[in-house]
Amino acid sequence: MTERLKQLLDSEAHDLAVPPPPTDSVLRQGRSFRRRNRMTAAGAGLAAALVVGGSVVALTAGDDTDQGANDAAAQPVGGNAVFSYGNQVFYDGPGHQAEIDDKAVKSMFYTSAGVVVRHGNNPNSDGGGPQRFSLITPAGEVQRLDLVTEETVHASDVDQPYIAYGEAVDGELQVVVYDVTANAEEARVTVGPTSEGWFPVSIDGDTVYVQNGYENAISEVDWKAGTVRPSESPSAWEVADGRVSTEVGGHPTLVDASTGDVLLSVNKAGYLDLSPDGRYAQLVDEEGEMFEAGPASEMEFEVFDVATGSSVTLSGPAFDWGWTADGDMFNVGEDEIVTCDSATGDCTSEPFNKPPAADAEDLKVGGRLYES
To answer: Which of 25, 77, 246, 356 has the most crowded CB, counting CB atoms within 10 A?
Structure first.
């Protein structure tokens, strides 16, 4: 009986017609911009919401369950270093390597389904043609995604299998949430009119924070409900666990993105760079490092526990370090990878054989969206 039931279910599943989600005719505009910033990484579900003219239309893949998202969330990114040289990506420490079939890697995003790699014709963080994407699963399988964008900002949430971004479509800003496991749009929500072509953005749970160009106000998009409201967040960049980096009274500060309440303030120069999970923040003083006397090995920086305000001190230029998916810091050296616990400051190292002909300028580290 059990085998007969399985055969019937298999037959029904094979014959089930699953319509693809509709696609829009997209007009992409680009504006070159260069800004050092950091990254966030993306929930669940096979149902999508498409908002057109104020209406919310549900898109499904023939199943009203959330099983696909639950499966993705059960396979988190490892807590080891993620970095790349050229098109070679080390997705879970130096012992796990995958090759991206493209000219260059631009950046890497942490998601619950694996490491999403943004790649294209050159390694530049912005500019230089189309931005293509591939998912590297925890097992090391490289899956080319259908997602292709031009001159826009992307973000992810380490606990979810999504990439989020904004794009201009017929003069309207639309926020897109792309499911990297289903290789399809999960949601598209219209925010409002725009004359811009790029949009700072973060995804944090059910909320996408998006800014309509540098000068315009920030909106909070509930991408599951398809609703939009003005945001109290001081920035649309790098919102993680409801926290966002800003400046208050001339001091690097972390605030609650919803209320503006100060969570951590540091009476020093620089800015606070949040970890992908939002638990820790690295104090980065790039201008100070540029004029620091002495070798890089003598430089130091602090990593703060956002909840307690305590900090540990690590060695080297702050911007040479990347974040692991679970909030530790790592540094890629000539022949070793050093990983440090952000809570204790304890560090471990493991040997690393840099790819032949690899140049230091080719290095991209996980946890940072933009490189200089």
So the answer is: 77
